[in-house]
Amino acid sequence: xxxxxxxxxxxxxxxxxxxxxxxxxxxxxxxxxxxxxxxxxxxxxxxxxxxxxxxxxxxxxxxxxxxxxxxxxxxxxxxxxxxxxxxxxxxxxxxxxxxxxxxxxxxxxxxxxxxxxxxxxxxxxxxxxxxxxxxxxxxxxxxxxxx
Amino acid sequence: xxxxxxxxxxxxxxxxxxxxxxxxxxxxxxxxxxxxxxxxxxxxxxxxxxxxxxxxxxxxxxxxxxxxxxxxxxxxxxxxxxxxxxxxxxxxxxxxxxxxxxxxxxxxxxxxxxxxxxxxxxxxxxxxxxxxxxxxxxxxxxxxxxxxxxxxxxxxxxxxxxxxxxxxxxxxxxxxxxxxxxxxxxxxxxxxxxxxxxxxxxxxxxxxxxxxxxxxxxxxxxxxxxxxxxxxxxxxxxxxxxxxxxxxxxxxxxxxxxxxxxxxxxxxxxxxxxxxxxxxxxxxxxxxxxxxxxxxxxxxxxxxxxxxxxxxxxxxxxxxxxxxxxxxxxxxxxxxxxxxxxxxxxxxxxxxxxxxxxxxxxxxxxxxxxxxxxxxxxxxxxxxxxxxxxxxxx
Lengths: 147, 394
Ligand SMILES: [Zn+2]
What we know:
The complex is a heterodimer.
Chain A: E1 15-16, H1 23-30, E2 35-39, E3 45-46, E4 61-65, E5 69-78, E6 92-99, E7 106-110, E8 124-131, E9 137-143
Antiparallel strand pairs in A: 2-3, 2-4, 5-6, 5-8, 6-7, 8-9
Chain B: E1 8-15, H1 26-41, E2 50-53, H2 73-80, E3 87-90, H3 95-108, E4 114-121, E5 135-136, H4 151-165, H5 174-184, H6 199-203, E6 207-210, E7 212-213, E8 223-231, H7 232-236, E9 243-250, H8 263-281, E10 290-293, H9 299-307, H10 316-319, H11 338-342, H12 348-358, E11 372-376, E12 385-390
Parallel strand pairs in B: 2-3, 2-4, 10-11
Antiparallel strand pairs in B: 1-8, 1-9, 4-8, 6-7, 9-12, 11-12
Bound molecules: zinc ion (ZN).
């Protein structure tokens, strides 16, 4: 299979709508910081954000920055334009990332700056940020550089 | 063991015609299936006094229009005008298997005598996933911006994890697809009846969401199936041989909405549902003579075989080789063709086949000497339920 980059230039991504639970996540992302919800009682990170800690039922939850380094937990390569908004990028890799700082908290993303064929389970990635507009910046991932 | 094992049975089963997309209102299909199940039992519509369904429309972005795109309990009540109706429910958490379990509970509680459960599935003309919006709210805010648009991708990501962690190859799944399609040729109600599939077809087919090719995905269809459940005592007086429910279970784990791709949570869902079923029935996987395992996407069968305990983790694609899933194999599997053969009707058809195999009514595709018939009615974590049907009460 010829390795090539997905063409994201013609894709208009749906823009996330922050809510009561997720607003701090998106506020941090706009500052190019990846911050996840953390239980102040048991120190468990969770994502997506939830009303309570799903490990200990704690209700004191705060967003704390994480390093943004992790590994691909799983991925798929999309060949079918089930979502017409993404037709121009096909084939593209949608990945699920498990962060070093937050085991068990799985983040979705795309593998950017690399051929989609580079997506493999366990491969090291790091967060980058893709601004969608003045309010919303999307955390994304690329293959990890350096250590 | 469960004190209520074998006290409720599936009696009649019914099918509508299955078409590629909506030609007639969905309620017409549901009515045809319900009438068929009632007639198969040798009952009259007026005997039915319990109704249960799970009406969800999986085609996202389309309006829920009762009678057209879904068939609710209210819709069925309006159509049937049941003079003796005594009980009904519409379930939410565990898909259609939950509706069957609730109907069994109502029969055990003595609040109805003959319950009908149906599943009607709509396939809109045009685009199945209608995702035209410029924004992503709620749980989709963390997934839709990355092109996660449908349930297939959620299953696909878990499948890549399974394949690469266990050093397996997706080509082995061809055996599942072609064996199920062969079983489909013995099921005249199925969408793909009359359309065989070869290994070459599977291996040469276009990729949809890697590792899923076209033949790993069930085809969206318009159609309905239905069953009549009653107490064991009443079932013995009816025309068909009963299929007794020896035990059931449901998924006890749930993920935070919007979290996708967690293979471990799929496995946890399947383990929790099947553990209840094994405990209640007193059986274990080695006692099972035939199994139906939900296959809306082929990989669901892997998670089912492993989490229910039929084989070890990482071994499911090897387990299904060498004729083991054929009608005369060690574990005949998805003997009606599965959703990959019938079209997307969710899990009620798996339950129907499990019951037909237990009562010896599966016709040309009947497995020999079935005493214990297992059903995993939905993918383990996506609203999973499990059942055991038996030929004789014990
Ligand atoms: Zn906690």
